[in-house]
Queue: 3 jobs
Job 1
Amino acid sequence: LAITGTPMENSLYDLWAILDLVAPGLLGTAIGFRKRFTLPIATGEAPQRMEQLRRRIRPFLLRRTKELVAKELPEKHEEVLTVTLSPEHRAVYDSVLQRERKKVLGLIDTDLDRSRFIVFRSLTLLRMMALDPSLVDAEEYADVPSSKLEALFDRLEEVIGDGHRVLLFSQFTTYLDRVAGELSARGIDFAHLDGSTRDRDAAVSGFRDGDAPVFLISLKAGGFGLTLTEADYVFLLDPWWNPAAENQAVDRAHRIGQDRQVMVYRMIAEDTIEEKVLALQRRKAELFDSLTDGGEAFRSAVTAEDLRELLG
């Protein structure tokens, strides 16, 4: 018996791995599954394969959403906060985008598989530039303000002023450090948890038992396994490729024990790679929904076409 809240995080292979443990041979070998299901579904060349896969796994898969098993939970509302880059921020972002686009598109047309590390580095660089240019080069971009940091505090101070407690998630610990510095400068108390935190339990209990209105959390270090229902606001400061990881982070607050409505803000820098990542997230989520609920399938991995779209 396998129990998980995220049966498919990145691709259909995740589902194969789980079912191969509980029902060995049901879906064949990993290589055979890739040829028979993953690739045809990803490319859209054989839409009937999705229905074949759905029929095969249906007797072995029981899906229960939170809405079904935890009906007593208060509502959760999600909103995308679109952040317009300042002229200074826009100029440096566009400059780096043009440089990295030329590099990556050249690699796509040669040997993408061997160049994935370089491609991922370029995409990460653009994500950092959209978030805060000083994360890339603190000296070169020292005079370029982070548009997102300004937008965050415009909303955050209002939320805190109304007596709410907040979870702030980011993949970039350096950005959490920037936010921490700004919180300190404004005299706002906070707790902080990332991969370098030595006493994780102390950080968590410090927030739960204390009065700090803000908890800064690295998505990878604290996006799962925690109960933080003392907070009723969640800010996702930058989008991650994996929608399941973000949903897990939100569920630190929206879970059994929560007695207030939970508000989730996804902060997205306008006309940047962040908008493209958000679109890719939605496609991944729809892939799993199509498998379990009969929707339309989408690609399950980042393909060359995805990269062209991300850099478009």
Job 2
Amino acid sequence: MTDKDTSPVPIRSGRRPGKSETRAQILDSARRAFSQNGFRRTTVRSIAAAADVDPAMIHHHFGSKEQLFTAAIALPIDPVQVLGPVHSSPTENLGENLLRAVIGLWESEHQPAILAAFRSAISGDGSQLIQSFLLDVVLRDIIPRVDTPPGTGLIRAELVASQMAGLLVTRYVLGLEPLASLSVDALVPLVAPNLQRYLTGELPI
């Protein structure tokens, strides 16, 4: 009868990352993936693989893919919640309701954090993040509603995105006057009709 081997079991070197480290790994991988591939072409599984974590960890730390995207661009509030009423509004009111929702978010107590995230994105390599945010989060559910004639939904959304991005930069980042000081009620009638025309008007294409 041989003696049992009582030598200690080898312990793997290193240590498991803590919660904060895991979250940081996921965010770093998500930013790279969203920047390179956009929102639609990025999957939770691919982010998990890049971060070397189980996909369940992403759902544990962030919830949905949309919530992970919001965290990746450092927004202080989930835009999906803000835009919920917009998506249920009549098509003929989409331009005004969309503008009021987005401007209302920028005019809220979250403005400093939103402005910081926006500035960080446009000053670095985050232009793809801004594009994905506008087209794949803000306007995603609107595109099929305005796809008349068929095939024009995306260009309509891109026209709206270009107008809104320009407005946000001019009003909040550059602070050009008198646009920056206009009240929301004064601003909406100036911009909303153009957004509505992009969404539902006839396009010369």
Job 3
Amino acid sequence: MSGLPCPLRLATRPVAPPLRPVLRLPEKSGPFGSFDTFGWTWGPELSIDENLLRLALVVRFNCLRVANYTSGRCSAIMARPPRQVNETHIDIEVVGFGINAPPRFSPRRGLQDTKVPGVRHWHQGMANNEIHSEMQIIGRCAREGIPVRGAWFYIALAPCWDCCKALVAAGAARVLFKGRGRRAPKKTKANPREQLFAEANGMAWVHADFCPDREDYVDAAWEAYKKELGLDRAAVKAQASAGGLWDKIKLPVYAGLWYFFNVQYNIENKKLLNVFHANWAVSWVQLAAGIPIALFMWSTGLVKAPKMTGSDYAKLAPVGAAFAAGQVATVASLGAVAVSFTHVVKALEPAVNAIASALVLGQVFHPMVYASLLPVFAGVALASSKELSFTMFGFLTAMASNFFFVTRNVLATKFGDVGDMGEDKTQRKTNQLAVLTFVATMVLLPVCLFLPGGLLSIPSAWNAGPSENEASE
């Protein structure tokens, strides 16, 4: 070990010159195949432990690449103990990788800042909701039937108490980890309680010596990866200056198109409801129109289709019912009063959302947030008093749509996501809306079949429409 630039305390002896490593990494088609090693290669001048610890440290960059998560502070790898296969070669098998990240298989994996009801000053954000890297490896090995007993773990930080117990329970034989920070650690034991527990149960607890060369290697790998992504400041500026016109204007263009089509929807909806008195039917058809659009995206591969079970759809039934009720109330209000007045009342939806979040989710905002809503209440009251087309029915249905849509949002947050909606954020949000549209359409169907103004009223409303239109002309 004296000739090595980075000796490790209690590390295995370096590979003798005649022995050459036969390195085996997880297969790309296997359960750990999505992880990248970011240019890591075996250093023949380094010990087995030093090589594998450096691999564990660069695996951390997968927090950004795989989970789109920038707060991950730790990573780990699991390897089999080195085994000499003949006089010239030694077998080194890396079985799995792990990163600190929110659980990928949890229905609440996408939470950012949802406050836990009844718990003060504690948020269920991604950092607080993450699972540690060694636990990720153990969990995935359990799902895939990969044995952990006798394995060695190389970890970027000392395992916490819970992870230490899990490693012992899983049968890990050895844990090697790096100390915190870029300076040499003090001459004290790292996590003494965990070390005593591990050694008492036959698991070796190895704290790697500080090594400046190792820190420089990881920093260089990170800078190279940031440059590849365009995250370094110089590259970002160069890319911004070299970007085309479309890259600069696409956001306002998309926002403008969204407003344009929203306005057109409201105007055409009002024209339709003036001559076609079938509010329930119009509401259902507008919801159902989203289904062929979703099917087209899924069938053409524009968006990966979600994976749902019957129980998943059942859990979404209350959310779909609130979605459908909000749609019906909005259409009813548009038919009763002026479009502008409906949307003046619907401006109260953020206020209703803030109140409902506090009552149901326990998510309380700063008092200034609630104070900022007072002018909105005053504006709606003033507009209602001056509105010539004001009717109590139009006002109440507009307010009902606020409550129903807020209920949809709160229930969706409370119950969390269900099924596999995809890993990409845009894909996940698109699939969530598509699935909710499908559920809302199915929930509303039996209701609007037989009610007046429902689907069975379409022929009579269609026949009555032209005469009313001609009379208005």
